[in-house]
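Why do we bother with a discrete structure alphabet at all? Because it lets us treat a fold like text: something you can write down, compare, and reason about line by line. To make this less abstract, here is a complete entry for Maleylpyruvate isomerase family mycothiol-dependent enzyme. Read it the way you would read a sentence in a foreign language you are learning: slowly, and without expecting to understand everything at once.
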Amino acid sequence: MQTGLFREVLRGADLKATVPTCPEWTIGELTRHLGGALRWMGTTVRTRAQDMVPDEAVPDFKGPGDDDPAALDAWFGAGAAAAAAALREAGPDARVWTWTDARAAGFWARRAVHETVIHRADAAIAAGAEYRLAPDVAVDTLEEWLEIGAAPQALELRPELRRLLGPGRTLCLHATDIGQGGSRWIIDMTGDRLTWRRAGAGERAAATLSGPLTDVLLVFYRRLPPEHPTVTVQGDRDLFDEWIGLVSW
């Protein structure tokens, strides 16, 4: 579904237009990045790879250029369909390589959805198109990010994130438009690594990002600025800005 929505944005878009949220890419380059990633995930699952698959081992990884939009769209669609077929055939428990401790195909099914969710936002922003996201998908996209950030290897790969740790350093993400009184997530950096939890209405944090769920997600992924009129940041703004500056996908 997410890849179909991405293709809707792609059709009629100027493939040479710069993507403001990924300024090193055009819409065409964004499409090839996402399409290549989906083909790479599909190849990983289809071959039951036990080590990281090199790009050159992925069939038609790079895709066509921008001169034939229909060809780019067809390439993207074929790769997405092949990845979906590989995931369905494997089932969620098939053992495959991942870059986490979750060595199962289900990891890639979830990752493919969320990779597409965020890059669909990039494409929509670049094309001036409307962007909507189902609440359950938005919640899982947010929580996958938090799970990855809380993984033990996160600090090994990004030791600079240790600067975020310290007494009283907590963030709250408050989605005001779902659940009675909204839904909250607490990011706790007071220990020796990041942890997170769903929070009750009365739990507070040093800094809080509040707004509609999709907009909170997009600010969290740095696709919308914290100054966007639909969201607010309350409390320790320096802590929030430090977090946003250091933690990127």
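What the structure line is telling us, in plain words: Residues 105-127 form the longest helix (23 residues). The CA atoms of residues 13 and 127 lie 6 Å apart.
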